[in-house]
Amino acid sequence: MDYTYTKKTNRNGESYMEITGGKEGAKRLLIPEEIEGIPVKGIGSSAFSRRKEIEEAVLPRGIYSLGRYAFYNCTGLKKLTLCDEVEDYYDGVIKQCESLSYVDVQLNIGNYTVIKDILADNDRTLHFTLYGDMFGEKKKIKLTFPSYVYDFVEDVEARVLHHKIEGAGYPYRECVTRKWIDYRAYDGLFYQAVTDDRRIAADIAFDRLMFPYELETTAKENYEQFLLLGSVWLITELIEENEMEKISFLLEQVLLTKEACQEAIDHSVEKKRPEYTAMFMEYDREHFHRNNLKTKDGEDAGNTKDGAQDEVGLSFELDEW
Predict the structure, then answer these.
(1) Residue 307 lies in a domain
(2) Is position 313 within any domain?
């Protein structure tokens, strides 16, 4: 057994195990569901704090308590996987986890408490994947929550400190309650995300379009327009990051402009990525050079998504990018 633990009794007189630590050196923690036939229900206070080598922690179903500073200052921790049975989430569980970016939550009982607590405990950009039954249907939902900065500004004359919050991350977090997520409010904050960080805004758009749970038509159109009109700068970054899934989505949904497609071809050739080059050349042939289509004025037809590239009055303007 790679973990240390202690046997405890809950308020109902039932025995359970609480993990109090583990063998050093492991990059991936896979917490067992039971020890000696007794269910594991908690992670103790400071159980893995300051363990810089840990990169991933997977907690089983049944864990309902995360003790104070359980993973505090685990600077290498990148991903946390757990279930929504967690009820007791104490202060500082993931504070100072500077690398934490991905959180997977299995929704077994429809309790969003742990999601809200994690978001309150970490002010960095967090990418959530939620799995579970939504109204009788198995769903996978992805949501990105931007970072924010909470600070104080001193008013010397009045001798008071004013609270100051910068970044879209705080209002995005306010969309999560202990019982549900307000997806309409979440989608309504997109303009703030665009203003703060266009790359994080792109992640938000991809998440909502690729996993469109409770996505209204207007929000869908805004996300699509953002990706389309920002596709010139975005496509090169996606190639650099080797984001094949997102690139494939842009191509399938016809969300690359002609200029972006040419940029993608040039960049993939420069980076010696033949698999990408072939994809973009096929897209170019299919949507911009098929049968050498011409308009009645003799110009290229351009065959972009529903003519979106040439529409007037879009929510986002090309010169913003």
Answers:
(1) yes
(2) yes
> What's the pTM?
0.87
| Residue 47 three-state SS | coil
Q: How far apart are the first and last CA of the chain?
A: 54
Instruction: Supply the range of the domain harboring residue 281.
Output: 216-321
Neighbouring-strand partners of residue 5: 19
Tokens encoding 158: 């009045």
> Are 129 and 102 contacting, i.e. CB atoms less than 8 angstroms apart?
yes
Crossing angle of the two packed helices 244-252 and 274-287, in degrees rounded to 10: 10
Q: What span, in angstroms and rounded, lies between the C-alpha atoms of 218 and 3? A: 50
Q: Are strands 38-43 and 15-22 parallel, antiparallel or unpaired?
A: parallel
Tally of domains in the chain = 1
pLDDT (tens digit per residue) in 144-162 = 999 998 765 555 565 565 5
Write the DSSP symbol of residue 222: H
- Pull the structure tokens for residue 62: 């049944």
Cα–Cα dist 68/85, whole Å: 17
